[in-house]
Fold this protein.
Amino acid sequence: MTQISSPARFDVCAVGNAIVDVLSPCDDAFLTAQSLVPGSMQLVDADQSAALYDAMAAGVEASGGSAGNTVAGVGSFGGRAAYIGKVAEDTLGQVFTHDIRAAGVHFDTPVLADGAERGFGTGRCLINVTPDAQRTMCTFLGAANQLEPTDIDTALIGDSAIVYLEGYLFDPAPARAAFEAAAAAAHAAGRKVAITLSDTFVVARWRAELLAFIKASADIVLANEGELAALFETDDFDAAAAQLAGIVELAAVTRGADGSVILCGEERVSVAAFPVDKVVDTTGAGDQYAAGFLLGVARGLRLEDASKLGSLAASEVIAHWGPRPMVKLEVLASQSGLTLQA
Amino acid sequence: MTQISSPARFDVCAVGNAIVDVLSPCDDAFLTAQSLVPGSMQLVDADQSAALYDAMAAGVEASGGSAGNTVAGVGSFGGRAAYIGKVAEDTLGQVFTHDIRAAGVHFDTPVLADGAERGFGTGRCLINVTPDAQRTMCTFLGAANQLEPTDIDTALIGDSAIVYLEGYLFDPAPARAAFEAAAAAAHAAGRKVAITLSDTFVVARWRAELLAFIKASADIVLANEGELAALFETDDFDAAAAQLAGIVELAAVTRGADGSVILCGEERVSVAAFPVDKVVDTTGAGDQYAAGFLLGVARGLRLEDASKLGSLAASEVIAHWGPRPMVKLEVLASQSGLTLQA
């Protein structure tokens, strides 16, 4: 299972919303006042984004985007990663491009040249982080939303062991078409297709479509327990896990501080979360888990070892502000005695 | 000493280079390869800035600028602060303006409307942080450099207990003139003038001019021990401290992990650094020390208590990436039993 027969140039190629994050501390009262559901991600338009930004505390900016974070994590492990996503020709687009390339990730999706003029500047995610380290996100997709099937580099995907698709792309129609094209290109080349469910509200909006897509096109699913519950409309974890395992070859379900569970047919592998001195900001935790897990699977590691790489990467990113590793995960893995080779 | 006779609307009004920081991790070999002196700040032009950014690791962006960081810290303590500095009409300028206002700081210096077109975008400081948490800075001043005497709001300065001037402004001539105008406005209103020496290389470049300015116009000097040594060209700390105490009413000299020493005439007050679990990034440590110290002085606290506020603020900012507090210093002060009222 998950053995890739022919050598691939890249371990993971991700297709996602290219987004720069703005992270600010807030309290619960702020979320209430702004009518935000704690822990959720919602889409906002340019005016809503500007109004919320005005109200937010001072913060920090960092390249983000769920799948972008994941491939940056793969690069930080020393893995070979590529990314497909859309930015505009503006300052945030330069920041996104710099950061993902500086993480060692191949990225050459054409920029949306006239994006800023048409109101599609580089996507921005306003993230308010409460003292319990939980993030609540409002995303203005901008240029990210303009990803089209023609942006899918099928040769690149065909040369990647795993193509990783962001569930958030089920929202905008042209991007969802791009997403379908990417999955088709991967399978045509005999590669694996992974998808993350991304968010409980995404699952609620597109439940039937996601289930159909998983059954038809996905080999690997990543989800957290909330998203899993939403997908099968049950809070019974074991029942939902069994249903997921029945429709996909391999799945990894994260459970926050309780670690993660890998599902593979009848097999269940539970892996604990890595201990963290102080959790500061959970932004990117799931994305970094995916980085370690997918790299491990692409490299043919045992599922438990792949999952441990995920837990390690998640523990690094939740100990500081921002959604991407600030130290080399390759070094952390070595210090923790984790291998990256099968 | 340092009693302000008439009530002032603001505790501190700072005049500084309005800069957005880009912070990336690096190793010592990177600094060597880029011919950068560890721990220094140097000015670079737009092309040098772009070339260095291309070579830098993925990072985070955060509003910075030494004096800007300080007034953001004053605001975080619940103090009343104002800022004078120049940004362009671009994304980084919007970020700087948002963040400083979100910290509760009054900021209405006119933006440089045609800055971006003339090659004077908002200033950017590229900061490479080594694993020992030391920062090495390359600053493209851009719009910050275009601060002029007409930008100095003399009514605002006259209504501030202390005007705080950034030594970095000794570099660009028009900004230095603005700086002189600010000092004059403060004294005309019977207020105190504070200056930070900012950087050993600034001191080396402008030693005679800084000494003349301090003697003629400054009531309070902030420096670290390296800058103090450069100012008096001696590594004998006590001798240099005595010389500084001989030309200025009050001074605070920071000594990194060894805390700080306050100089006031013959009096010497030593205050320990606050313990920190793990030092991540020392960017902004001196700026936050200045925030606590100046607010304490403006409020008429005992020198030791003012210095403790400085140490507390510095301890918060060195424990995370970025130059400004990520939690309310007012809350930290309360938790540490430190008072903000005389």
Q: What stands out?
A: The mean pLDDT of chain B is 95. The interface with chain A takes residues 24-25, 53-54, 56-63, 72, 90-92, 95, 98-100, 102-103, 277-278, 280, 320-322, 324, 326-327 of chain B (CB under 8 Å). The longest helix of chain B spans residues 173-188. The first strand of chain B starts at residue 10 and ends at 15.
